[in-house]
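Quiz preparation item.
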């Protein structure tokens, strides 16, 4: 039975991941931004201990530590799933506020979550950090022209590319500590901010991710994966 912290667990992929881990009888720590949502999840899922925190601020670090320390001294899996989408895809209309907001959530958010969880991860026998990334963060795919004229936002692509670099840096730092760190592209999801080629329900993606993470070990660290498909280029 793993102890799993999932950020952005109130909807979409995060909520589906929470359901999968709960069905498989793991202990979950869903991170959400409101007390109302936390209470709803606590009633819906067994062995569920919601954390109310806003990952856009450093205060979230103490919030996470406080709840984790109350219920456990170890954590097996941290899934950095929280994210927001951007809109502007032309340089004339790109807003620096939007870029800043996405970098804060997709890059600084995972940094905050890792800083909060690291002492508990170090106490696990099989610690894993999973950063939910995107194919749009791949510099090789982007430079190949694969997404040309698709109107994907500057802010999302840039933030995911930066998050991927964070994954690489973190995997190299923590490898000697026995902590596996990976980036996962979940697939083209049928969510609110879906791409034009979206073809996968979040529930399917969540099951694919769960199965891959269950089998992941230190040999998987530093990889960029799409479960059920294979490895992606950075």
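Solution:
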């Amino acid at each position: 039975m793993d102890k799993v912290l999932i950020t952005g667990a109130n909807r979409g992929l995060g909520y589906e991941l929470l359901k999968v881990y709960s069905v498989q009888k793991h202990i979950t720590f869903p991170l959400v931004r409101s007390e109302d949502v936390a209470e709803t999840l606590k009633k819906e899922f067994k062995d569920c201990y919601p954390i109310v925190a806003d990952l856009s601020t450093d205060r979230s670090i103490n919030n996470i530590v406080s709840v984790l320390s109350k219920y456990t001294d170890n954590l097996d899996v941290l899934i950095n799933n929280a994210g927001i989408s951007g809109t502007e895809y032309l340089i004339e209309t790109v807003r620096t506020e939007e870029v800043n907001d996405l970098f804060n959530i997709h890059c600084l958010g995972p940094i905050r979550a890792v800083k909060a969880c690291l002492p508990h991860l170090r106490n696990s026998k099989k610690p894993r950090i999973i950063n939910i990334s995107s194919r749009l963060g791949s510099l090789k795919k982007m430079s190949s022209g694969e997404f040309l004229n698709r109107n994907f936002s500057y802010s999302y692509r840039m933030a995911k590319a930066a998050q991927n670099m964070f994954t690489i840096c973190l995997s190299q730092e923590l490898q000697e500590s026995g902590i596996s760190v990976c980036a996962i592209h979940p697939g083209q999801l049928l969510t609110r901010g879906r791409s034009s080629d979206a073809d996968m329900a979040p529930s399917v993606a969540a099951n694919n991710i769960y199965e891959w993470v269950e089998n992941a070990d230190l040999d998987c660290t530093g990889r960029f994966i799409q479960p059920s498909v294979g490895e992606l280029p950075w």
